[in-house]
Structures are given as structure tokens and as C-alpha cells.
Amino acid sequence: MPYELLVGLRYLRARRRNRFISINSAVSMIGIAVGVWALIVVLSVMNGFQKEVRERILGVVSHVQISGTGNRLADWRPIAKIAAQNPHVLGSAPFVQAQAMLVAGQAVRGALVRGIVPEEEEKVADLGDHMRLGSLDALKPGEFNLVLGADLARALGVLPGDKIAVIAPQGLVTPAGVIPRLKQFTVSGIFDAGFAEADAGLALMQLQDAQTLYQLGEDVTGVRLKLDDLFVAGTVARELLKQLPPDAYASDWTRTHANFFRAVAIEKNMMFIILGLIVLVAAINIISTLVVAVKDKQGDIAILRTLGAQPRSVMGIFIAQGMLMGLIGLAAGVLLGIVTALNIDVIVPAIEQVLGFKILAKDVYLIPELPSDLQAADVVRISLMALALSFAATLYPSWSASRMNPAEALRYE
Known about the structure:
six-stranded mixed barrel, 413 residues
């Protein structure tokens, strides 16, 4: 072991003559540990939140959507064949999408109505896996059945078998004026996708029933596509645009929900900076600890210099002392952070049970539980930042110690 490291390690331990230095060292290590711990946990939770929401959104929203001008596509089958030729496309499904008002007794709610073909929809979405009551197979042409999101069904106070009046915005022109188009549907199922926007505002019906309700004839709103890799959606959409007719355009999920995912990325970066200040404060505390240590060890430094120690060796002693504080704090913080991030699904429910309330409200945070996705890249980035700050904090005190004049230091010894 180099003697600089050995001496730095001895200086780090408590001494009877001056325990203030050891207390300061402990505070510095605790500060770094807490900062690293908080950073790992918060970034893991934000990664998990982003991943969970992305998966839930894409369980309802398609990877790529091809639509026509005016949200009306006259001949969708040739377009679906063009899309199927792309190697990344796994499946396609036509859909009709429009706004409607749902009325059940005295309850009235606005909703996004989507007309689907159940057997085709399974190729592009996994709503069938989220059915709580009934099945998507109940959506058959001409039967005018309806599948509702759980929150929407709760707001309307309906269950499978109940009747709902669906009012389309397109009206019928009569001598008495414009009369809204109204059709009675039967609730045949309820789904719970875990995504508040869908659960509270999405109603599914059979494609032909939607075409009849909105007077589309054989037209549809567009075609939804599922890809083998959701992160190539932008590339696939641009490739399809070159092959599609002039009256059709393609958009991907990164555009339809771009603001949300951009906001999450910005929040993650800001949280990294804000919580990194905790590590910075701990690093500043290392500076004060080493300054006091240099003042306290003036006699030792002078003796080492008279024995032939070079200034860089004296500097190395206090760099080693500061870096040991940083490394111990970092190791403790990384260990705590990894353990907490991997067990967040157990820790948070226990805290909620003790406090007696739900930390995350589904209608605010989109998902009702706190997810976690621990990524090695984040742990490495946090560790490098903590080490860099710890090293930077040692430079001035160690440089000051290396410039000390042995004669002046021994004058009052």
C-alpha cells in the first residue's frame, strides 16, 4: 500500500486529540451517501414511470397510425397491404374514431368512440388482456354493443347488460331543425387498462356499427399498426409516407404523445441536477473537513517534508483522505439506492399502509402504483459524478498542504 494512502486512511479515523475532524468526515460521508441514494431511487422511479406509462399508452394507442384527410380513409385495404410490406410491421387493423356523448339515466359523459374489428384489434393492441367484465368478442356487427373503460362505466353507473344512448355530433337536418343522431347501445364489457385517459374516456364498438352511427359508409378513420420495435416508429412512419397516396398520412406515438415524454425527460434531467446539489453540499463539506485536517496536521506535514517527502506526496495524502470519504459514502449510497429501487414495490405499499392514504392518485399520475426501473447507466453516471465532485473537493486543501513551509509549521511545536 502506498504510504500516502496509508497515512490518509489513518487520518480518516477518529483520534482522541481532535474528534471534530472525524465527525466532519462522517457527516461528509453521510451526505454523499444520502445524495447518491436519493438520486438512484428518484431516477429509477422516473425510469419506471416512463416505461410503465409508455407500455400502458401503447396498449391503447398504436405505434403508427395512418389516417386520411378529414379523418376519413376511403380504401384502407390497399394501404394496409402497403404497410404490411415494411419488415417492422407486425399487424394492422382498421378503426373509426370520433367524439360522442354517452347518456345513461341522469348521467352524461363525453367520450372518444373507437370502432374496431375485435379479431384485428388484437394484432395491434392488448385491450383484450385488460377486460374486467365481458369480452371484446361481444362486439358483433349489427348488435350495437359497447365496451367501456372502467372509470367511464363507473361515472355512468352502468354494468354489462345496461342500455346507453350514444349521441353523435353529426345531426339530422329536418324541417324542425337539426336533430342529433342518437342510437341506443348495450354495454357488453368493461376494461381497465390502468391508463386514466383510456379508462375514463374511451368507448369501443364494432367497426360497422361505428360506420353506421357516423354515416361513413365503407370509409374508416384510418389504420393502426403494431411494430416489432416501438422505438423505430418514427422511421417507419417516414418510410410509409413515401409510399402512401397523397390523401393519407402517417403519424407515430412519439408525435401523438411527444409533449408528455419530452416533459418526463426534462423532469428527469432537472431532478438529476437538483438532487446532485445534495452531493455537491457533501463535497463542499469535504473541503471544510480537509482544511481543518491540514491545519491540525501541520506538525505531521512538516516532519514528513523534513524526512524527504515530496510536495506531491503530501498532496496525495489529503487527496487520498478526501477520496476515501467520497468512496465510502458512494458505496453506502449505491448499496442503499439499489436495494431501495429494487424493492420499491414493497416499500411504498408499506408506507401507504402506515400513513393511511394513497400516495399516487390514478387520475393525476396516470398509474396508481409507483414503478421502478433500475438502469446501470444511471448508477454509473451518478457514481462518476460523486467521484468527480469528491476529487474536486480535495484539490484546494491538498494543494495548500503541499505548499506548507516546514520551518513555519514547526516554529510553535
